[in-house]
Specification:
heterodimer, A: about 210 residues, alpha/beta, Purple Acid Phosphatase, chain A, domain 2, 8-stranded mixed sheet, 6-stranded mixed sheet, globular, B: alpha/beta, 6-stranded parallel sheet, disordered N terminus
Amino acid sequence: MVLMPERCAFWPARRMLLVADLHLGKCETFRAFGAALPIGVNGEMLARLAAAAKRTEALSIVILGDLLHAPVGVTECLIDEVASWRAAVGAEILVVPGNHDRSLSRVLGPWKMERMEPGTRDGPFAFHHHPHTIEQTFVWCGHEHPAKTFRRGSESIKLPGFLIGTSVGILPAFTSFAAGGGPCVGGRFFPIVGKEVSMPLEPRLV
Amino acid sequence: MAKKKTVTKAPGKSKVRARTHAAGAGTPGLIRLEEWFAAQGWTPWAFQREAWRRYRAGESGLVQVATGAGKTYAAFFGPLSELMDEPDERGGVRVLYITPLRAVTRDISLAMKRPIDDLGLDIAVEDRTGDTAAGVRAKQRHRLTEILVTTPESLCLLLMRADAAALFKNLRCVILDEWHELLVSKRGTQTELALARLRAFAPRTRTWALSATLPNAEEAAACAVGVSQTPAAIVRGEMRRKVTLESVLPSDPSRLPWVGHLGLSMLPDVAAVLDPAIPTLIFTNTRSQSERWYSALLVARPEWEPLMALHHGSIDKVERERVEGGLKDGSIRIVVATSSLDLGVDFSPLERVLQIGSPKGIARMMQRAGRARHRPNTDATVLCVPTFALELFEIAAAREAIEKGELEPRTGLEKPLDVLAQHMVTCAMGGGFVEAALFDEVRTAHSYRGLTEQEFRWTLELVAKGGGTLSAYPDFHRIALVEGVWKMVKPKLATIHRLNVGTIVADTTLEVRYISGKGLGRIEENFIAGLRAGEKFVYAGRVVEFAFLRNLVAYVRPATGVTNFTPIWGGTRLPISESLAQSIRRALERAGDGVLDSAELRAAEGIVGVQQRVSVIPRAAEVLAEITRTRDGTHLCVFPFEGRSVHGGMAPILALRLARLRRATFSISMNDYGFELLTPDDFPFEELLSQSLFTTDGLAADALESVNISELARSQFREVARVAGLVFQAYPGARKSGRQVSASAGLIYDVLRDFDPGNLLLAQAQREVIERHFEHGRLARTLERIGRSVLRIIKTERPTPLSFPIMIERLAAKLGNESIKDRIERMQKQWAQDASKSKSPLKGLNRKKWS
């Protein structure tokens, strides 16, 4: 599995791209509550996903849950925007339902995506939204939005990244409009530093 | 120190007033009110009569007088006599009294009712705040009384009612209490907008503001009365009491630490000065400091427990009222308080005021001194308690400034668009508005007198369609145009707006309760989040043990034992004022020259000696810069002595200019005396630092750039986002729906910057940061002063008495031009170095090393 700075992971053997936590329609949800947030977050994310798929020549994209943010944010505009983006992406797209995906059934059709049951296995791997352990299998999941703050003296930098344990791998949130900061325990943390994924950094001094 | 006084009760406040001749015949109403005054044994002051007369002559204005000198009646009898002379059966509010303090509305309405009841007048007074009982509120839905006492926020809620215009169409008078306090904040701007609306509903409305003494009274009055043809009247009360400053000094001055804000090393000296026979108010600068001092005094003098109390803004209302009542009736003799007792209720029996730590400003010092009422013709004395050595200079400086009468001016804000956005939604709910009419109306508010049509349009677009004209956001309509009138059309959004009205930004707070049910007050969520069950902390003067959190209530149990764990509440620390800053520089120069002309300077002799030995004491015409290398990196400390907000603007500018000469990342800290730039690497400050870096050329551009790079605008955005309705303080109904729209203001700032960089709210956040740090030209004046001064660059082996307090300050900002990758690589190298060396050199360092 290749960890990519676009905040996704690629499995060359299957030419499969893994992403988690897109939270499409989050700004739309805020707008429905009267907060004037701009458009563009969804578009940037979709472009980044399409570019990653193109670079890797992926045959399939597996979304590890929280494709959507909230039902009220799934507007006609959003459905149209993603549908026209979808037309230009050749790969097959499979979605593991996440806790935010309450309107998933509304969009799977127009977006030509398929539901993938949580826990579906493929070779040595299985796919989930919430972190799970399954015996004899390495589980890829999302939900936690791993990010870690590195400090030295008075300086601190917060970076999203991948949390890779012995039997579970957690992807960073694909969206940049979400606070990171799951507990980051139970694995080694591979931060995204600029345009590359870094090896785990020195543990911060207490 | 302070001698024990024989306790003589000061006579009732009005009996001692100088008699003045009756100023001509008043109206029948005024004559009856003067008779009532006389029946109380009082004679009106000349300024009271002047205010009544000028009100009845149709003028608006400002009454400037010290607290407790009868200003409420000065403002109130004009409109009251008018109500008596011209009864009006049409209903609605005739007199509106606005106060920033919800807690005092009851006292004010009681004071208003006294003459009304005594004279048997058929005029009703009610108050309307968040604390008003549900039953009264339900009645107020149908009918509001002739006289209504309220807060700015509750007034906005009334303006949201669809029948707002009818409610206020008979309004004659608005009274603004404590205007000097309201004026300087967004609450003041919000009040200005509400007043503009009220004047549109009832053009005959006159406005009278009540304020403490201000050097810029004309400007404050203009903000209150709005833009009009006639200048506002200024009525000045004659009572000016002399204020003297003394300090409580340690018997051994070397006991005062170099750093620290708590000041507990002074506990024995303070305990020795206190005496329960003398009712005393002890002011502290933060809530956490008040908790610590209260606990410490109880340990030092356990026998005082029944006579002592704690008062701050997070303590439960019932307890606060008990303390205020105890002060009034004399059962409580010593109260440790924060600014929660700066304003409002007058505690007649108080005789002495202590101030722990720097008072930060001269007006504030005088206000606090004024809390102690003395026998006539005696001075108000404040006893200042320094918390660390450098504060000795501040006390000496404050005394000099008070003697010279150098008060700080207070100024309103310039057209904040977030407040305008909130006001537009309020108007859309309160019957709707026509665009052109609202533009004219808003421009009658002083703050918005220079609002351009373009800015107005943009703000309207923001609430109507989201972004600017060219980037309308799909599916976003907070308000909509219905037959030429902008209205609120979505009930759900109306509810959200109602719950989020106001401009006060607070961290999420939770209620603190005993499991048995008694409420203790409120506490910040972040503090509770870090607690484990069973952990003890000091709260409301008691030791309690955290039990569990349920439904936004933190449950605690009473506990025994001692703990020093005290919650730290958020809130900003006040910077020292420009007048005080000048005095401090003069006091330092005198101390440096060996002219020890006050007890404080004599006590500071030791620390002055150390500073002179390892560096220099800057003269008033010099600016000191110290360069120190420690294991943390290279420190540059510059000491303009201009107050933390100016330093907060100057430090990023200097950092930016240095980073242009050599790529670097600076950590920035500051206090009231100076600022520090710290680079983790070796950095050649001594080569690069020169007078030319302090030039005012390109200042505006550099300020903007440094504000953006240092992310100061990002943190300021929190307030803008909350006022403009981009983040929510409260949601209707289930918390679950709230979670979908919870995002930090910082994240929203990033989204706007990336996807709508032209958004004017971002520009406003920048402008607010710059205005705060520039303080109306103060930063530029400081740079010019440095340009004229001699820059003394001194390399020191170790931190000095001046630099040490800054080095241990909390980091305020960061500015640099390295990439994230560079920074991470450098951090890794430093971690490796750290691992091979010992602990931080700043730890364990204290003044003993020098003496």
